[in-house]
Amino acid sequence: MTTEELKINIEKALDEIRPFLQSDGGDISLISIEDEKLVKVQLHGACVGCSVNQMTLKSGVEMTIKKHAPQIEEVINVEA
């Protein structure tokens, strides 16, 4: 898989999650992919400072990204 294909797959995963975040007044964007293993995202709106955002990040976002791009090992949130 090329870096571009990997990015496309990760964006597909984020598009799958985005409606759930937006329904709570939040959003997410892809910041970077490092060494084709680590994905950095940024949560926006109501997701920033939300007490469940780490759980959302690990159980929802990371799981969905790994489904689309199995080589990804970790997803981390970058604060604004």
TrEMBL record:
BP term (GO), one: iron-sulfur cluster assembly
Pfam families for this protein = NifU
Its domain of life reads Bacteria
What are the NIF system FeS cluster assembly NifU C-terminal domain coordinates in residue numbering? 10-76
Which molecular-function annotations from GO does this UniProt entry contain?
A: iron ion binding; iron-sulfur cluster binding
- UniProt family annotation: Belongs to the NifU family.
Q: Mind telling me what this protein is named?
A: Nitrogen fixation protein NifU
- Species annotation: Neotamlana sedimentorum
